[in-house]
Amino acid sequence: MPRMLVTGGAGFIGSHAAEHFASRGYDVTVLDNLSRGRLLRKADPNAEFNWTYLRSIPRVRCIRGDIREREVITPLAAEADVIVHAAAQTAVTTSTVDPSTDFETNALGTFRVLEAARQGGRTPTVIYCSTNKVYGENVNSVGVAEEAQRYRFVEEWSHGIPESFSIDRCEHTPYGCSKLTGDLYVQDFGHLYGLRTGVFRMSCIYGTRQFGMEDQGWVAWFVIAALTGRPLTIFGDGKQVRDLLWVEDLVGAWEAFLESDARVEVFNMGGGPEYTLSLLELLERIEAETGIGVTPARADWRPSDQKVYISDIRRARERLGWAPAVSPSQGVARLIAWAQEHQACFQER
Ligand SMILES: NC(=O)c1ccc[n+]([C@@H]2O[C@H](COP(=O)([O-])OP(=O)(O)OC[C@H]3O[C@@H](n4cnc5c(N)ncnc54)[C@H](O)[C@@H]3O)[C@@H](O)[C@H]2O)c1
Known about the structure:
By secondary structure, this protein is an alpha/beta fold. It has helices at residues 12-23, 36-40, 46-55, 70-78, 92-97, 99-119, 174-193, 218-228, 247-259, 279-290, 314-320, 328-341; strands spanning 3-7, 27-32, 60-64, 82-85, 125-131, 144-146, 151-153, 197-202, 204-206, 233-235, 241-246, 264-269, 276-278, 297-299, 308-309. The strands form four sheets. Strands 3-2-1-4-5-8-12 form a seven-stranded parallel sheet, sandwiched between helices. Strands 9, 11, 13 and 15 form a four-stranded mixed sheet that branches. The chain has a two-stranded antiparallel sheet with strand order 6-7. Nicotinamide-adenine-dinucleotide binds at residues 7-8, 10-14, 31-36, 46-47, 66-68, 86-88, 90, 105, 109, 129, 131, 179, 202, 204-205, 217.
């Protein structure tokens, strides 16, 4: 049986990867130090919930440990055929307050995973969870038009942001820098050391088992705040638009990558132009599904906030024969149903 290592596997995306590939016959090892709450400086039921959930799945082995520690990562990477590297400090806001931890987790942590993969002698395939934040403030140079409930890219950019978009000469935030560092190292280890590598620059991934907070995971956070009556703040005017990708569609793209002949690749990954929502539109969807109307507080735009981000997913479509299947209206309804069922998890601690 092929063996897979999922770093950050107790997190939202990692746990879905672990579950999916175990169901496909992989022997999956999840490595996680359960630090999400500590990193985001908030009480976080995520790790505990996903940890317990994963332990009930056949073919999944859970190991608590840190990707930065050589003695932990080296033996695990050496036995893996595929490494899904999802572990990270994930919030832009935290990265500006504590850039050292952000760098150590995302840049150094990724380097440690790659070195362990290289030295393990098995030349595993590495799938890297990169981010649209690698394009930094350059995205704000794309023209946007304003409509009643949303912004949209001007016609020239109607397909979204492609992989060839510039990463240079702009601000990024520490998170953008640390993730880009990992992104470039993953590509280079592919070119130089013969690892098969897939860099997936993801925009907004959402789904079940996502414990969103104000700082990270906004779709789940809006749903949780609405259901629990917690105060919700919109930074900016709420017309910001993102392309939304249901987490199982993301994992489907990784599977398509593994089954393809692609070797060293970069893909922009999101719902693309057809699957987008603005913040205001998400609130409308939540109200339509639950009957709960939320009146958010308003605050100023945050540093590096993008009015629109939409991934150009044509490369993934062409190279992987992949397309997203779950629309935002279907996905948001599924997320709400899951959150309603697990409402007890979201009570303040
Ligand atoms: N969720 C999104 O929309 C999105 C978008 C773009 C990129 N990403 C990237 O996808 C990946 C997964 O994101 P997520 O939303 O599942 O986040 P998450 O916070 O739910 O998962 C990250 C996991 O990594 C673990 N972790 C952190 N530092 C670690 C360390 N040093 N050693 C071991 N484990 C560690 C955490 O405990 C957590 O369980 C991250 O790399 C993130 O940057 C996510």
